[in-house]
Predict the 3D structure of the following.
Amino acid sequence: MAERLIVVSNRIPTDAEPAGGLVFALHETLKKTGGIWIGAHPNLSDTNTIGLQTLAEQDGYTRLSFSLTHNDHENFYLGFSNSVLWPMCHRRGDLVQLNREFEEGYARVNARLARQMKEILRPDDQIWVHDYHFFPLAAELRKLGHHGKIGFFLHIPFPALGDLSALPLRADLARWLAQYDLIGLQTRNDVARCLEMYRADKNAELMFDGTIKFGDRIAGLRSFPIGIDVDAFVKAASKPFDTAKLGVGLTHDLVIGVDRLDYSKGLPNRFRAFGHFLEARQDKSRRASLLQIAPPTREEVPAYRQIRLELEELTGRLNGENAELDWTPLRYIHRNIDRNLLAQLFRYARVGLVTPFADGMNLVAKEYIAAQDPEDPGVLILSRMAGAAEELTEALLVNPYDVEEMSDALAQALDMPLAQRKHRYAGCMERVRATDVSRWSESFLTALAARPPALVIPTAKISGAVG
Ligand code: GDG
């Protein structure tokens, strides 16, 4: 029987035509390979006793869903995933909310999903698990006797050793991850931090070929920087731009930011930097506008409500102090915007401002580059703390904590001569193309397929033979 690909992610596309970076990539991969995509059902349920349900069979693969109860949503999703793991991985130990019920919810959902998967698994399936919601999934599957290949990709930053101490003792990331055959991370920096974790673990041994030996298992570890569907984005951005759609008041000096409204994205400091830039500019008749699109996300988590209030206050103050009758310097949209319109806005904007405090990769940075007109490109200002900064070294790299440095970068970007803009764009675009999302999934799956089959050592028999 041929190998099947089984993808697991918390989110699963529910429309016939999925869109957006990761969802698009996995959809395209499964269309080619066939297989199964497993994710949480979009509606919460009252019971969790049922197994995996078929959501759709189309485009040559099957989508299966597992159900989450209200309690699971509270403790597994909002709780342990997004109030413990997310802040811990984004260096916000101060926001970590420890709670036994979160821990139990996380363990319960992973164990239950493993049991539900075991019902449908074949021994030679290739399983590809995505993100921090499922760190222990392989360990749970191994407990149930599944020995087939399992790969894991972490979309967010790998935590530093010191930050890992914020986890409860039972959350043993080193042991959980060692149950995968291949651990994929975004950047070389992430790999270095993961190695640091294993180096400090007395149960682990770092092998010469870069793999990690942990008990009877050997796991591969590599960076696979994720990218975007470059051609699709270039095409969307190149469509004629209808400024009338946007209403009045967009000056030519448009600066754009697009981020889920998340505290890791550094939005308050970005607003402060823009305010500083407006105040510091010599030519007061020159007008620039910052258009910040920040759709809501995880609003049930208190830290997300807090950041929203902070931004609303900053927006009011900045506009109050700087606006003119015919000019609103900061436009802040707390809603989702159509993807094609987004691509066109990226092309229209003179500057793309991407300033997270921590980010696995940051696809917006790549989208901004892909959207530019090669003959008259805008300038990307990029935080050194985004994974994308490891590759997009021709961007104007900034420290997101340094408001003055970001303000200076804005002035530099808006005044940058064409030749320099073209040079920087070409360097970035080369990297954006080299990491196109289809190459990302291909290279991960090729590396997973190349992992040698795990040695299953029947411990009892061996010790019996020796004795
Ligand atoms: C995680 C990691 C990693 C945003 N607003 C709208 C909209 N977006 C789209 C963007 C982009 C995507 O959402 C956001 O992707 P990012 O990579 O920037 O950030 P996360 O959501 O935090 O993603 C991240 C990524 O996983 C992939 O591995 O890069 O580091 O945190 O595509 O364009 N799209 C539309 N309307 C919006 O208002 N249509």
